[in-house]
Amino acid sequence: MHRGLIALLGLALGLAAQASPTQYTVELVDSYPHDPEAYTQGLIWHNAHLLESTGRYGESTLRRVALDSGDVEDSVSLDRDHFGEGLARMGDRLIQLTWKAGRGLIYDADTLERLGRFDYPGEGWGLTYDGEHLIMSDGSAELRRLDPHSFEEQSRLSVHVDGQPINRLNELEMVDGQIWANVYSTDLIARIDPATGAVVGTINAAPLREHLPAGYKVDVFNGIAHDPDTGRIFVTGKYWPRLFEIRVVSAGASEK
Q1: pTM of the prediction?
Q2: Span of the secretion signal (predicted)?
Q3: Is residue 127 situated within a structural domain?
Q4: Going by C-beta distance under 8 Å and a sequence separation of 6 or more, which residues neighbour residue 50?
Q5: How many domains, the chain?
């Protein structure tokens, strides 16, 4: 077991050192331009483009971004009192959360036309769709499952390592049947069993910071997009000037 990464997990998540989900790290596959003014909140892959939700009051957007150039090809601004958060696609619709307004926004996935809205209690952080439910984080250790039609809460999933809750779950993405979650203010992704809530693996993305150019106001690691057709995985961060395509590898294997 890689003791350094276990210690990092314990420090970042407030866990005892004996907690031991499988440890992974990342290898860089490719690097692409990313808007350094984008406060990235949600990230998904759709129709050979990235769709991105950005935050900050008065600056929040939903945007379509070209991968190779990083150019914003289309963008919709949110109301000034809405702070954009997680983003998910359900068929031909996009669902975007807001932080404290308690409001979800519904869009056409191809045109970004606003189609409607819905309300929910508490804060909105990350969002993904598993084919049956919307799965929503609110900054706690619990994930909410929402009905994709009524948007009413159906159940909750408590996320834990060895019975200890994992708080600050943020951006979410379904990857090969697991829920991947950025852990806010760390460079870690928790890989969560959707049946039990157990964290079965953690991905340390800290090595990516070596590939960020100097001179930018980079903030925390946040944003996971998965292309299910090719298996490619893209990640970035708030105000990061680069978006990275990564390969996830065993932490032990990367050290040999």
Answers
A1: 0.90
A2: 1-19
A3: yes
A4: 43, 44, 64, 65, 66, 67, 225, 234, 243
A5: 1
